[in-house]
Amino acid sequence: MMIHNIMLVEGNRLMLEQLSNVIKNTQGVDLVARFREASEALGQGIVFMPNIILLDADNSNIINLLTEFRRVFPTASIICTGEKWNAESSNLCINAGAKCFLVKPFSSEELRDAIMSFSTSFADARSNVLTFFSPKGKSGKTTLIANLAMSLARRSGGSVGIIDADLQFGDMAFFFNLKPQSTIVEAARDKDFLSPVSLNSYFVPVAKNVSILCGTKEPSLIDKVGIPAFEALVKMARTMFNYLLIDVPAGFNPTSIAAAEMSDTTYIVAMLNGGYEVQHIQRALEIFKSWPNYQSRVKTILTRVEPCNITSKQQMEEVIGYPVEGIIPNAFLKVSAAADDGHMALDLDPDSTFAQRVNFLAKKIMNYKQDDSDDF
Amino acid sequence: MNDEQINGAIITFFSTSSAVGKTLISINMASELARQGYSVCLADFDLQFGDVKNYLHLHAEHSITTLCDIIKTNGQHPLTPLLSTYSYGHVSFQVVPAPAKLEEAYNLEPETIIEVVRRLRCQYDYIIVDTTSMFSVLNLALLDISTIVTFLGIVDFIPTIKNMKIGNDTLRTLNYDANKIRLVLNRSDAKTRIDLQDVVRILGENFYHILPNDYESARQSIATGVPLVLSGHDSALARELRNLVGRYTNKGYMEDTPTKSSSWLTKIFN
Question: What distance in Å separates the CA atoms of residue A133 and residue A130, rounded to the nearest whole number?
Fold first, then answer.
């Protein structure tokens, strides 16, 4: 692994100490030099051979400084730091040659993520992108995604991101009782000057290692999120998380198709309601079969399966004519009770069938080998 | 818009959550209107996953795809021979099913579908339209051309009500006559912890009509393919469905509902 030699340029004495400590505690990086004055860094820094420069951007002269630093340190990557994130200054810095913009004080993890985002050698390989598609809506997938995200984060210790791309009636923010400052609309608007690190500030953390890019606040905002912008966001987000879960609008539409195309796995999620759900799954599968490797890329999950046991699963596989990846029991009462109180039905009794089935799916996504007796 | 063109009334069922009963109720409305002797055409414009054909156990030769093809190639060709007929006893009405193949659905143009509706309205007393739960280009055009929009909601849990509220507010921004949009509550799932009065308060509006919870009758109707109002079994749901139709056939309500050629939302979506 490449060692990152960091030169820190920070005008504020206390912040300089604070950031130095963070850098010293970050694995894989070395603090090789630090300066309070940019002019000193420009004059003396080169002897320390930094390959990453953290540059204080709360400076009216930052654009000229960036030009100077790039001239003196042509091989180093420059990360601008500022007390407050705002789209305009971030945009200016990135246009002037900075790799990204970090809000300070940052944590070790944020710093590592920032560095990782532009040393792409190991960024993309680690992410697993999962799209949750439902033919007709009312599939129970919002609840499934949220619980799966929590389970994945807890079990893998990795980071999980959720993108609520159900652009007209996304419920993720509501389920988590969030009033987000920024949503997918703002992220799409700002995409041209976002880096994975700055995009991170658009995600709202909801639990340890789980954060959400919320959906639009009203249906008419849908046209603010174009498909190219959406694709750019997914590409960026996949370098930020170990697992990226995407909720898409029901049916085949530009958004759901784009998400599915970019995903490692697309789950067709449907709720058994005594209607024609099986036919809808089959119709959707017919479309996905145009992918040569659809058998490994497209999986089905059924919700509200009662009784939720291996016999039901096998029966459904026979009826649908396609393997069923997972089954989830009816959790309507618990989910609605929690939602009505303004929170998500998470951490349901760990011994409940619901929790067991969600955990089983999480382990499958993590490629755990699971006990045969548990394998349905 | 030329007023003399308007013959039949177009009644569109719309919602902002799926599985609220749009298909079941539109089928029953079509059946009851037909039973009363009106000429009725029921159009399934949930193009990808429409269930009208399924719920009626209908084997249709043609679909909206054929109608659109005809309109584009030969504008004069009559459309009625291409519709499917549903009959039960002495009652019958025409159906425009959703496309047989999903990829057809993806390629249909909203303008052509609207043209089909314009043509059909000259031949039927009532056109009943089933839709998907989103503000798509097609749905916005259908809302524009409709005489009455039945905005259907259920009360199961708060996210659904949030979406109902957003949907209702969005509908109001389209500036239709207040009388054109009718809020109907389907108590399809009575297992709810939410008080009806709270919902009314949140929506800022009373329900025009409330349908009782009768899951078992609804389930049976879907299983047998016979609409509730035709099956002969008396149930509270069938009664209230008939009452709803009774209120809709009051011609006093139907007059003077000009359709708008476009709206801000349509423009945004285009």
Answer: 10
Tens of pLDDT, residues B66-84: 999 999 998 788 999 999 9
Q: How far is A350 from chain B (nearest CA, A)?
A: 24
| C-alpha distance from residue A375 to each of A194, A311, A327 (Å) | 42, 12, 11
Q: Give the three-class secondary structure for B186.
A: strand
Q: Which domain holds residue A214?
A: 125-374
For β-strands B148-153 and B84-88, DSSP reports them as unpaired
| Residue range A217-256, pLDDT digits in tens | 888 787 789 999 999 999 889 878 999 999 999 999 999 9
A348 lies in the same domain as A330: yes
CATH number of the domain encompassing residue B203: 3.40.50.300
Domain with B32 in it: 3-269
How far, in Å, CA of A131 to CA of A247, rounded? Answer: 6
Residues on chain B touching A271 (C-beta within 8 angstroms): 19
Residues A247 and A364 both lie in one domain: yes
How is B187-241 classified by DSSP, letter by letter? ---------HHHHHHHHTS--SEEEPP-HHHHHHHHHHT--TTTS----HHHHHH
Tell me how close the Cα of B163 comes to any Cα of chain A, in angstroms.
6
What CA–CA distance (Å, rounded) separates A143 from A245?
12
SS3 B68: helix
- Partners of residue A219 in chain B, C-beta under 8 Å: 134-135, 166-167, 170
* Phi, psi of A74, rounded to the nearest 5 degrees: -65, -25
Q: Write down how long chain B is.
A: 270
Q: Tell me how many domains chain B contains.
A: 1
> Domain with A70 in it: what CATH number?
3.40.50.2300
